[in-house]
Write a structure and sequence with these properties.
about 350 residues, Rossmann fold, Zn_alcohol_dh
């Protein structure tokens, strides 16, 4: 089968013929239809410092996908050939304290699809049945392909109740924009998203944010004044991983404000901890999705009319992967999709 492979410890990916993966009694073999390009995939392609520490070559990359079940193992009872499925890309041990308590998203032994084991940028991928999400209601294939990052957005956005609240989102990447759509759908009063990319801010406007703010030209304090906010934002969703964004968010939160942080900083940085203490700010770190509560929330949001189509800005055949990755790396696009269904 064809697959995108990090073949050697150097920049780039190769489209190669590799053996079709074998599935065991508890596994599901999936024919891949669409995949989404993630920032993780960009790091692996660039072979940056993180990738050099995390990746053992050769490796089939990719973890965002939708596909059709081609075969199931003898012990699989709740997934059938022909089902349309996406996959939870965090494979957990099932034996640690958190797994046994039902907190699988907190498993300390998590292995990432397309990072710690062969992934989904291929004609076929294998997952344990316990990691397979069956789409029981109608969903667009491109949207189904990005359920993984949509889950990151939902997990972050629903960390704190947003009904009637004023929400600040720093970072208008695809996940930040999806989170904005979620909190707007969930009844937030004002939703402000910040970035320096005019293209991404325009995508954010298409999902209905109250204000898409270019922080290279305006401050968050300006946004508060424009919206008539007197005491700051109730909820912050930090999606950028940028030190200046975190500091600006802290400066513009109301006392008792709550912040969910998904953005991953490249390095350590200082913040004003006295402000966090004195203003009684709650900060919650977010990684991945709650298994599978977040997935149920995603399905219900889509069934309820949440429209993610503005977030998808490009679709390529898998043979054109270099052009697709180049566009995804510009930091001006939304989600980029690879089509594996010839």
């Amino acid at each position: 089968m064809k697959a995108l492979v990090k073949q050697t410890a150097e920049p780039g990916l190769r489209l190669m013929d590799v053996p079709e993966p074998e599935h065991g009694p508890g596994d599901v073999l999936i024919k891949v239809l669409r995949t989404g390009i993630c920032g993780t995939d960009l790091h692996i392609r660039a072979w940056d410092g993180w990738a050099q520490q995390a990746i053992v070559t050769p490796l089939v990359v990719g973890h965002e996908f939708v596909g059709e079940v081609a075969a199931v193992g003898d012990d699989v009872a709740d997934v059938a050939v022909g089902d349309l499925v996406s996959g939870e890309g965090h494979l957990v041990c099932g034996k640690c304290r958190n797994c046994l308590a039902g907190r699988r998203h907190l498993c300390r032994n998590t292995v990432g699809l397309g990072v710690g084991r062969d992934g989904a940028f291929a004609e076929y991928v294998v997952l344990p049945a316990s990691n397979v999400w069956v789409h029981r209601s109608k969903v667009d294939l491109d949207v189904a392909a990005i359920f993984d990052p949509f889950g990151n957005a939902v997990h972050t956005a629903l960390s704190f109740p947003s009904l009637n609240e004023d929400v600040l989102i720093t970072g208008a990447g695809p996940i930040g924009i999806m989170a904005a759509a979620v909190v707007k759908h969930a009844g937030a009063r004002n939703v402000v998203i910040t970035d320096v990319s005019p293209e991404r801010l325009e995508i954010a406007r298409k999902v209905g944010v109250s204000l898409a703010l270019d922080v290279s030209r305006h401050t968050i304090a300006d946004a508060q004044e424009q919206l008539g906010l007197k005491e700051g934002f109730d909820i912050g969703l930090e999606m950028s991983g940028r030190p200046e964004a975190v500091r600006d968010m802290l400066d513009n939160m109301t006392h008792g404000g709550r912040i969910a942080m998904l953005g991953l900083p490249a390095d350590e940085f200082a913040v004003d901890w006295s402000k966090i203490v004195q203003h009684m700010i709650t900060i919650k770190g977010i990684y991945g999705r709650e298994m599978f509560e977040t997935w149920y929330a995603m399905q219900v949001l889509i069934e309820g009319g949440l429209d993610l189509s503005p977030v998808i800005t490009g679709t390529y055949g898998y043979e054109d992967y270099d052009a697709a990755f180049d566009e995804a790396a510009t930091a001006r696009s939304g989600k980029i999709i690879l089509n594996w269904n010839d």
